[in-house]
Design brief:
The protein is mainly beta. It is built from two helices and ten strands. Strands 1-2-7-5-6-4-3-10 form an eight-stranded antiparallel β-barrel. It has a two-stranded antiparallel sheet with strand order 8-9. A hairpin with a 2-residue loop joins strand 8 and strand 9. The longest helix is centred in the N-terminal third of the chain and has 13 residues. The protein is globular and about 40 Å long.
């Protein structure tokens, strides 16, 4: 399945991997289809690491999400350049709507073991078009805003997301 993210800096197309991360893909697509991501921003951008979004609006307010999902990071997929994965808190099974796109090979985020420190972060797809948009976002200067670090100085909005191709 393909999903297009329309950002204020251009489109990014993702190929999702429902075979390896079925619950994560279903969760993400449910948020996409509900319109949840419209008006959210990329609120955490760290050069040579990742760009994170999907949970806060332009005023830095956190959007209310559905219940968290079980971590599927033990699916054999790796946090390599251009992949998309679920963001979460320290609790391995706390991912809900926020996601990140790797802008480097971040293998230390991969599944190691079914322990609190070893679970890793679930990769569930990859960028197939628009990697230049991801790189452009990654290169934007960042600042501290409303208690959040690494926030782009320029607000980078997710205008909408939509499923553009079914498998």
């Amino acid at each position: 399945m393909k999903v297009q993210i329309t950002t204020s800096l251009g489109p990014i197309t993702l190929q999702l991997n429902a075979d390896k991360a079925p619950n994560t893909v279903k969760n993400f697509v449910d948020y996409v289809n509900s319109g949840f991501y419209s008006g959210t921003i990329f609120h955490r951008v760290i050069e040579d690491f990742m760009i994170q979004g999907g949970g806060l609006d332009a005023d830095m307010n956190t959007k209310k999400t559905e219940a968290p999902i079980k971590n599927e990071a033990n699916n054999g997929l790796s946090n390599t350049y251009g992949t998309i994965a679920m963001a979460r808190t320290g609790d391995p099974h706390s991912a809900s709507a926020q996601f990140y796109i790797n802008t480097n090979d971040n293998l230390f985020l991969d599944f190691q073991s079914e322990t609190e420190d070893g679970w890793g972060y679930c990769v569930f797809g990859e960028v197939v078009e628009g990697i230049e948009v991801v790189n452009n976002i990654e290169e934007k200067p960042t600042t501290m805003r409303d208690g959040y670090q690494d926030v782009p100085e320029e607000v980078i909005t997710i205008e909408k997301m939509e499923v553009v191709a079914e498998d």
